[in-house]
Specification:
Pathway: Lipid metabolism; Phospholipid metabolism; phosphatidylethanolamine biosynthesis. By secondary structure, the protein is of the alpha+beta class. The chain folds into two domains: about 15-70, no CATH class; about 90-290. The protein contains eight helices and 16 strands. The chain has an eight-stranded antiparallel beta sheet with strand order 11-7-8-9-13-5-2-15, with no helix packed on it. The chain has a three-stranded antiparallel beta sheet with strand order 1-16-14, with no helix packed on it. The chain is globular and about 60 Å long. The model is unreliable at about 1-5 (pLDDT under 50).
Length: about 290
């Protein structure tokens, strides 16, 4: 349903006038407030009930969380997400739902049916974009009930990353289907992973209500006043095992996995498919070992 004389749903126009970045910073601040224990417990349990959160796999009990953000970024029990045993497999870096996937053709990726966006806009780096043109991508949406820590798709090391400030449109279906070039407009932090099979990239996209994006290998934090775009080379590469934690979303969002031509072969995926951290989403191409 759309408003008479307008082409988008009413919620789109509400989001259009909302001060999205400021609103998201306020949400992040509130999520970090130490509330009275009874109020915090009640808020967490209400969220759990509404979004059907599985607390049995969480490391901590509800009574142990000191803030709502601690609950939202909760860690899982060690055996909650087994990694695919095939060392040539590409792991899903998060829990979530497959938004889109496929080939990167002529520098374009699919946002949703009928909507494309440019790889060079997403990476904000024309030279690096050429490395991934002709490769493949997978977009994974993290819903409110999902585990919100982000892990490595492959074993390797991080020697470089980029941060691009931007807007904070919702990455829900409302935004994905109605905001052109959404993922290239929103704030994002991109980790470049160097494995023995070459480089791949993990783009963490900000969104409305996402208080912050954090990573383990640097003190860069997203969603700050006066933020500027950065391309940073680490003095000492940060080594990662496959499935090891890279960072987290403090409130939810989307990741986009990028792979250069002929590096990997995607498994059969379906739009909207539910996937879990550590599940195989593809495997390194046999041509790399030839």
């Amino acid at each position: 349903m759309s408003l008479p004389g307008f082409g988008s749903p009413p919620a789109y126009y509400f989001m259009l006038i909302l001060p999205r970045n400021l609103f998201s910073r306020i949400c992040g601040f509130v999520a970090d407030v130490r509330m009275p224990r009874l109020l915090l417990n009640a808020l967490i349990r209400l969220f759990v009930r509404i979004f059907d959160v599985n607390l049995k796999e969480a490391k901590q009990q509800v009574s142990e969380f000191r803030t709502f953000n601690e609950f939202f970024t909760r860690q899982l029990l060690p055996d909650a997400r087994p990694l695919d045993p095939d060392l040539n497999s590409i792991l899903s870096p998060v829990d979530g739902y497959v938004g889109e996937f496929g080939g990167i053709s002529n520098g374009l990726l699919i946002q949703a049916k009928g909507l494309e966006y440019r790889l060079t806009d997403l990476l904000d780096n024309p030279q690096r974009s050429g490395k991934y043109d002709g490769g493949v991508f997978i977009t994974i949406y993290l819903a409110p009930q999902n585990y919100h820590r982000i892990h490595s798709m492959v074993a390797g090391e991080v020697s470089e990353f980029s941060y691009t400030p931007g807007d904070l449109w919702t990455v829900s279906p409302l935004g994905v289907h109605h905001v052109p070039s959404l993922f290239a407009r929103n704030e994002r932090l991109t980790t470049f992973l160097n494995s023995d099979k070459g480089e791949c990239a993990l783009v963490k996209v900000g969104a409305t209500v996402v208080g912050r994006i954090r990573v383990r290998y640097h003190d860069q934090v997203s969603n700050r006043f006066g933020a500027v775009a950065k391309q940073i080379v680490l003095e000492t590469p940060f080594k990662l095992e496959r499935g090891e934690e890279i960072g987290m979303f403090e409130l939810g969002s989307t990741v986009i996995c990028l792979f250069p031509p002929e590096q990997i072969e995607l498994h059969e995926l379906q739009l909207g498919q539910k996937i879990f951290l550590g599940q195989a989403i593809g495997r390194f191409s046999q041509n790399l070992n030839a």
